[in-house]
Structures are given as C-alpha cells and as structure tokens.
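Lab meeting, item 3. Inverse folding demo.
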C-alpha cells in the first residue's frame, strides 16, 4: 500500500490525476487544471498517510523469520530469549537437509502437520 501512495504522490508532482479517476474527471470537465494549493494539500496528505501506515504497520525486521521458516535460521537471527538447549535444537532442525527439502516441496502447514512429533515439540518449547 505504501508503494501505491508513493506512486500517487509522484504522479501528483507531475500534475497527473489518473490515480484519482473521480477527481480527474471533475478537473477535466470543469477547469482542466487543479489549483496548486489543492495539489500540495493532496501530496501532504499522502505523505501523512505513508507515515501513519509505517507507524501502525512497520516493516518486518526479520526478528521472527525463524518461526516462519526454521531452515534459514542462523546464529545472528535467533531470538535472545532461547535457552541453550532450545538454540541447539533449532540449529539442528535448520541443518536437517531431509526436512528442509520436504519443507520446500510443500506448504508450511502441510509440512508441519506431516513431520514427526519431535520437531513439533522443539518448536512448541521455544
């Protein structure tokens, strides 16, 4: 969504209103040009929306990437609150090439439902 807002803001900077069909039709039918103050207000509003979206929906920082895909785990991305035994278990899971291949060939849900209970116990205790 933020990418769309950036594109819309860029187009407004070029006085292009195609991203806003109703406004575009109104301007074309009435004046064929939009007041520069209105354009500036619209650009400021889009910028404000971008900031608000980033505030409420920040970009993922990768902290929990190990949960979504345990096979890309490395020491730098492991959470700080794991016990040493849990870290070891997660790293062993991440280095299991058989499970990694199986994971890549199916959906995450199907994979985790189909693996042995040992793997599930490892993840649940984290």
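The presenter then showed the designed sequence:
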């Amino acid at each position: 969504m933020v990418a769309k807002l950036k594109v819309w803001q860029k187009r407004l900077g070029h006085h292009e209103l195609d991203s806003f069909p109703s406004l575009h039709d109104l301007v074309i039918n009435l004046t064929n040009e939009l007041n520069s103050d209105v354009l500036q207000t619209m650009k400021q509003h889009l910028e404000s929306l971008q900031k608000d979206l980033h505030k409420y929906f920040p970009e993922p920082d990768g902290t929990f990437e190990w949960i979504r895909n345990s096979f890309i785990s490395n020491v730098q991305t492991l959470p700080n609150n794991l016990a040493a035994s849990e870290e070891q278990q997660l790293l062993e899971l991440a280095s299991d090439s058989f499970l990694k291949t199986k994971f890549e060939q199916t959906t995450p849900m199907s994979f985790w439902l189909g693996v042995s209970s040992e793997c599930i116990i490892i993840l649940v205790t984290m």
